[in-house]
Amino acid sequence: MLWSLFWVNLLGTIYGYMWYGNQLVFTVRELSPAYLPFVPDSPTASLFFTLVLLFLLLDSYRGRAQHQAADWFRGCVEALAVITSFKYGIWAVSMIWAGAYQGDHVDWAGWMLTLSHLGMAAEVLLYMRLYTYRTLPIIIAGLWTLLNDFMDYTVGVYPWLPDELNDDLSMVAAFTVELSFVSIIIAFVMMKLRTILTKRQV
């Protein structure tokens, strides 16, 4: 199961960066190459979870590493995976169907993106017991996520929207920031639940 999820997420991440190809080129030519890290939101979220799956696969072969620096890095990647995968999974589906509500046509690609992004949001919740992140990684991941929101809607590197939503940009921005806070809270609640479940098992 882990290997299957790893390859699905890895290939999905590669496809996601390709999907953003035109916007990446536009950002370099019209804005600044310095903004590139803030452009491909969903593929980067998927990349974080792909790394989490890699950590779990390595655990299955050689056991949990006890190196403090490695644990800190792993915790940050896990927190980033939970917050950004849940956030952008829900965000993308919301934007697709908000556009459809206003008249945008949802083709096969829209349905594919809907299913894949719902999967992104769900899969990070399924592995709650296996995460190792604590409070500091949540804070770091949360600050990065909010910085990404700031860059998206002040510089203008947010994911390209259906044309029907371009006149609703302020509402989209507000929804995005609210979803960031919801995702940060979910990561914190998951950490607390994991602690409770671990104590019960002991």
TrEMBL record:
Organism: Paenibacillus xerothermodurans
Transmembrane segments: 5-22, 42-58, 79-102, 108-128, 135-151, 171-191
Ion transport as UniProt keyword: no
One Pfam family recorded for the sequence: DUF1405
Superkingdom of the organism of origin: Bacteria
Organism lineage: Bacteria, Bacillati, Bacillota, Bacilli, Bacillales
Keywords in alphabetical order: Membrane, Transmembrane, Transmembrane helix
Protein name: DUF1405 domain-containing protein
Keyword Transmembrane in record: yes
